[in-house]
Amino acid sequence: MIAERRTRSFCNASGRSLYKSVVTSTNEHDLPAAATFVVGPHGSIEDVDAAACRLLGYSRSELLGMHGSDLVPIERHGRTAVSLDRMRSGELAFRNGVLKRKDGTVLPVAVEARILGDGRLRLTVRECRPA
Predict the structure, then answer these.
(1) What are the C-alpha distances in Å from 129 to residues 33, 105, 115?
(2) The domain 2-130 is classified under which CATH number: 3.50.50.60, 3.30.450.20, 3.40.50.720, 3.60.10.10?
(3) What is the residue extent of each domain of the chain?
(4) Burial, 31: exposed, middle or buried (Cβ in 10 Å; 0-12, 13-18, 19+)?
């Protein structure tokens, strides 16, 4: 429940209530659907779960080895790179942003980062939908 509230407020961080999190079951206390990405120290995607594939429309083999910047609209590359550096340093744990699906559509997301012991990041990504 705490994580769900945090995701909802994170998606609404602009204060304009543009987005709300998606809850995939009928139980309002369940967490929003989450996708997991493991990103290496140089930005390449090293592991994903099935939810990540469904979220973005890629197969696992297509995502593995892809650079994370390939999933971000070009106009957001700089901002995203700075956020990832801050996540790696432990300065930033949550961020909202957008990802680009395989079909080219842009998807608003909330991202939670956890630093792994080997320098990689585990990113938990939850879709945010228009209210």
Answers:
(1) 12, 13, 27
(2) 3.30.450.20
(3) 2-130
(4) middle
pTM: 0.76
- Residue spans of beta strands (DSSP E) within the chain: 19-21, 34-39, 45-48, 94-100, 106-115, 121-130
Token reading at 84: 């990832």
Q: Region 47-69: what's the mean pLDDT?
A: 97
pLDDT tens per residue, range 76-127: 999 999 999 999 999 999 999 999 999 999 999 999 999 998 889 999 999 9
Separation between Cα atoms, residue 70 and residue 86, nearest integer Å: 19
